[in-house]
């Protein structure tokens, strides 16, 4: 039967629409995706209820085995996945986990496995930074509220890294990025500027673990949701060219949630600069790459922040998009140019503090 002119035209229109849709999908690149406004979440239960009020309450990980053999097995599987079976990196990591000198400072097997698991990541300098005698101990202890970990001064004057006892059963891939953060602090007092630098690096360390093993991001535990919220903020703080930044974005980095204009905003005012250390310099080197000239001493100051704001050599554009998808963020093009950029810096509500947004550390 002959097709009517109307049916024929409708068919042509449908074919044209499908071709345009396929062309749009084909033409989408990681860079064009990153040039879009901040990605909204498709599952707010993965993030902090302090950012998304409809998110469920936070619940730490349930009880699980904490013995030496179990944690060593977990660490070995992680290192083998990263370096390959039979690699000297694996044997060296396991030897460090078993070493008496390591156990003297990090007696808890879960914390020790988490620390060694930083081997080969941006946070790798934290391993020796923790074990070089700077800290008298790394241990679980009682901390208030949602503080994940903090550096405390002991009666003998040495600093100690204390990890919140309620997180003692969390995945080592969630604990490790926090340890890379805490190893940057050498005393109980730190400015917002120091916290911002440490948090910006911590999010990148967490990202490396997720690219290897995405499952912790969707585990739903309290520490996972702390880390996810911080990483979402880091990924959504992008300029119009798609570049990862700290002080520039294209709208609310928590679309549909509390207004935060860019990753650094909850830390403002930034306060005074503070002295750096060898761990900081090495971690910054890992972030910015080998071709950037660093000062002889890298401190927690404006120069360092500008460097971290403008340079990130850890991930490719494709990996950044992959991370957004691991967090179940919507990376599809917005229906209109204003769909995701509608929440601007004219928001009436004040920006919450970093402790409220990311979970205190």
What does this molecule look like?
With 361 residues, this protein is mostly helical. It has one domain (40-358). 44% of the residues lie in helices and 4% in strands. The chain has a 3-stranded mixed beta sheet, covered by helices on one side. Helix 3 (68-83) packs parallel to helix 6 (109-116), helix 6 (109-116) packs across helix 8 (172-182) and helix 9 packs across helix 10.
Detail the topology: elements first, then pairings.
Blueprint: H1 5-27, H2 30-34, H3 68-83, H4 88-98, H5 100-105, H6 109-116, H7 125-131, E1 137-141, E2 149-153, E3 159-164, H8 172-182, H9 192-212, H10 222-236, H11 278-288, H12 302-310, H13 317-326, H14 354-358
Gist?
It contains 14 helices and three strands. The chain has one domain (40-358). It has helices at residues 5-27, 30-34, 68-83, 88-98, 100-105, 109-116, 125-131, 172-182, 192-212, 222-236, 278-288, 302-310, 317-326, 354-358, and strands at residues 137-141, 149-153, 159-164.
Total of domains? 1
Percent helix range: 40-55%
Radius of gyration from CA coordinates? 22 Å
The percent range for strand residues is: under 5%
- Distance from first to last alpha carbon: 73 Å
Taken in chain order, the helices and strands follow as HHHHHHHEEEHHHHHHH
Total of helices: 14
What low-confidence regions span 5 or more consecutive residues with pLDDT below 50? 17-26, 339-347
Largest sheet: 3 strands, mixed
Structural class: mainly alpha
Enumerate the strands of the largest sheet in spatial order, edge to edge or round the barrel: 1-3-2
Total strand count, please? 3
Mean pLDDT: 90
Shape category? globular
